[in-house]
Amino acid sequence: MIAKKMEEMVKGSSAIRAMFEEGKKMAAQYGAENVYDFSLGNPNVPAPPQVKEAAQEILEREDPLLVHGYMSNSGYEDVRAAIAGSLNRRFGTAFHEENILMTVGAAGGLNVIFKTLLNPGDEVITFSPYFGEYRSYVSNFDGVLVEVPVDMETFLPDLARLAAAITEKTKALLVNTPNNPTGVVYPEETIEKLAEVLEEKQREFGTSIYLISDEPYRELVYDGAQVPYLTKYYKNTIVGYSYSKSLSLPGERIGYLVIPDEADDSALIIGAANVANRILGYVNAPSLFQRVIARCVDVETDVAYYDRNRSALYEGLVKAGFSCVKPQGAFYLFVKSPVENEKEFCEAAKKYHLLLVPGSSFGCPGFVRLAYCVSYETIVNALPKFARLAGEYGLGA
Ligand code: PLP
């Protein structure tokens, strides 16, 4: 018999993954070119050539005992120093290697920080819609995820609702900008106001409320959108970063946490996160890819490919009669379902071999998510199918 808690987890297991598996089956049945799989955020732009060059050079030139060995649970000192240096150059921060802890992707980083911070019953607030895995990451440590709906016109946080949701049990606010699933990027003004709310509530309750910024999509922005660096607005900010999306390395499981000196109990958190990384069984982030990252910290992401997809899909869907906000970041569109039960809509879409993810996976029924990290041809070929699907609902007439 498996654990009760796991029974629930398995039941509620990721709809995104289920859709991905279904997509593979459909591809085998109908041919991959006839299936339009918008389900998974798996980058389809290859990693930049510098990644391969770095890996080759490391394997040829660096000491294999170093490259493949254990190191500090927080990661190699030189890698962490290289990351701190890059952040300082790009964002005017003043981090040093102790502020950086190498993690097994963003998922590993979030699990480490929740293990470090949460007592059973502690509350973590997040804005819905949100990346559905947050539910599991918080529940892993017996925390309680509190969902605060965003303004559905703009997908930006509703700060009055946030203020009302904070209690003395609030340990953290988990934000994700650029956002999965809406693609929204929080402007500076929103972040300033959000920081004010948190400051005020810390004073009211005499607690420390950590702002955890989950930002694997930081570099994937369009139309010149800026993504402010949150530690500069609120001192109790902890950043979780990952190279899964920006360098197209999701399978390599490499990312980091930034725990700034200014955060309350910073030294304690840094020490505890190091232990958490070890005792969760990660031990340390993958060593070869830590070393690769040290050589690629300033490699820029080519976002033009996703930008072209974004425009083509957005314009095509709007023309077909669907309604959605044009996103400024990440590689997702969050589209209003033409019927209240969006799962029904996803089922209808499957007739055209269109695979979409229901918004309820993101705590937001009535919408569907499309990941446009697919080939441009997939989008072009899918648009007539979307138009036919829209026709079933009397849209675009
Ligand atoms: N956070 C968000 C918002 C994501 O969309 C994802 C992956 O899709 C993750 C975290 C997990 O990223 P990683 O693969 O680096 O663990």
Number of E strands: 12
- In the sheet with the most strands, the strands line up as 2-8-7-6-5-3-4
Using the 3D structure, state the CATH architecture of the largest domain.
3-Layer(aba) Sandwich
Overall residue-averaged pLDDT value = 96
Q: Helix count, per DSSP?
A: 14
Q: Span between N and C termini?
A: 54 Å
Q: Ligands in the structure?
A: pyridoxal-5'-phosphate
CATH first level of the largest domain: which class?
Alpha Beta
Number of domains: 2
Main β sheet profile:
7 strands, mixed
Strand residue percentage = 5-15%
* Radius of gyration, whole Å: 21 Å
**Class per helix and strand makeup:** alpha/beta
CATH homology group of the largest domain:
Type I PLP-dependent aspartate aminotransferase-like (Major domain)
- N to C succession of SSEs: HHEHHHEHEHEHEHEEEHHHEHEEEH
Q: Low-confidence parts, pLDDT < 50 over ≥5 residues?
A: none
How are the elements arranged and paired?
Layout: H1 4-11, H2 15-30, E1 36-37, H3 49-61, H4 64-67, H5 77-91, E2 100-103, H6 105-117, E3 123-128, H7 133-139, E4 144-149, H8 159-165, E5 170-175, H9 188-205, E6 210-214, E7 237-242, E8 255-258, H10 266-279, H11 287-296, H12 304-320, E9 332-336, H13 342-350, E10 354-355, E11 357-358, E12 367-371, H14 376-392
Parallel strand pairs: 1-10, 3-4, 3-5, 5-6, 6-7
Antiparallel strand pairs: 2-8, 7-8, 9-12, 11-12
Helix pairs in contact: 3-11, 5-11, 6-10, 12-14
